[in-house]
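The following block was generated as part of the benchmark described in Methods. Ligand: S-adenosylmethionine.
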Amino acid sequence: MAHDIPLNPHRRIRTANCMGWSSNTLNELSELFVQACSPATTALDVGAALGIATIPALATGATVHANDASAEQLLNLQQNTPPEDRQRLTLHPGRFHRDFKYKGESFDLAHASNVFHFFTGRQLEQAAALLHHVLRPEGKVFILAATPYMGPFTDFIPTYEANVRNHVLWPGWIENARHFSNHRLIDQFPKSIHLLDHTVLTRVFTSAGFEIERSWTLRRRDLPKSIHYDGRENVALIARKI
Ligand SMILES: C[S@@+](CC[C@H](N)C(=O)[O-])C[C@H]1O[C@@H](n2cnc3c(N)ncnc32)[C@H](O)[C@@H]1O
């Protein structure tokens, strides 16, 4: 059936709204998020797509609120959730942060994997501020995003590195991704993309009131070979609300 998460290892599922692909393999950062969940946890999954992290988080006994800009994908997520876990799942269709209304100090953990590189710098700052608002004191965010060291964007690396040297505020922002990439799958991405790095994520989340617990670059285990570059394709960050 169309809504099933395929069981083939490392198979990717194209998102319904040209926002890249959802993986069916839990990446290293999402795995740490799931390990932090327990029956006592109330968690928020931003850009949850088909539930690659939401469903295992629910399996720990946690209560999970799944947000995604695509309502269709959230309905698929709900159908893919084992019946015994569905009562602890709440769907929040809409764009984060704009459409997400929630009272302060509601969540223990928040997870946003492969979604913040679709945000402008300003949206990223607003998302970090909202995450700070909705998390309880000591609550944690788990973030993973694409960096400029991604196979399809190698032509952008010199511009990015010059932007860093020139202290450009958002050095990885690409207004028109097609100017830097003719990758065969580029049409499955939005026009603009915001390739992120440790410095930008650290600045945004520190300014929003978080203490960085850990930040590192990696090649996530489910990254397709066709977009490999040099092992720095992704950046991950775990931060605690102070
Ligand atoms: C590449 S998928 C990532 C799915 C999953 N989190 C993962 O790590 O595989 C990106 C998802 O983010 C969603 N998305 C993009 N912008 C969003 C926004 N502003 N608010 C909520 N969801 C958004 C898309 O609809 C898509 O389902």
